[in-house]
Amino acid sequence: MARGSLRVLLLGGTTEASRLAQALAQAGVDAVFSYAGRTDAPIAQPLPTRVGGFGGVAGLQAFLQAARISHVVDATHPFAAQMSSNAVQACAAAGVPLLALERPAWQAQGGDVWTHVANIAAAVQALPDEPARVFLAIGKQNLAPFLACSQHWYLLRLVDPVLDLPAARGHVVLDRGPFTLQGDRALLQAHGITHIVAKNSGGAGAEAKLTAARELGLPVILIDRPHIPSRHTVGSVPEVLRWLGVAGG
Length: 249
Fold this sequence. Notes:
The structure is a single chain. The protein has eight helices and twelve strands. By secondary structure, the chain is an alpha/beta fold. α6 packs across α7.
């Protein structure tokens, strides 16, 4: 496809999306970067950026047509299932090619003590009945079901200061990845963490907590990825560039 006929909608919010945005900008590709708007101060991108939802499948389809989008790349978080599902349906309805840039899920290694669960509710149920000190590494969504288990103490690591916890209930750390093994090991030890709850988001930026848990022998409750309708998926920025027909990809 000729470069001039390309107009890409990049659904972002991940490290991979930011890397792709840099590559598209450097290649001079006409592209729009879309953030869901869940973070107060999203990372600045080298592309024109829009923030907020589209209004479901119909709204996204209308945007694709009005903005004359030729290709869509879904590089959202692996747990952004609703957005990804909407993209599959809207692109099919609008006749716009869709590609997903998705990081591989984490795989257990020797020494890992993982319990796989299907969803948030199952993760809550997997926590022990007796009081535990839990590193709740799931972002700011879906905190309420855990906090309702009042016997536990929670360590939260968030990008935005969305809530305060009384010292008796937990502690909030404001930080943005990527995180280091040394830093996560120290964090777990400093707060006497006994259990970790995490989403299987994959990628290197948030993997340090799992390596630290392995070294410390801590159990991890790992929430499996949600179902997303079938779509063409790749795992690297060069593969996306080749799909777009961009030289150097």
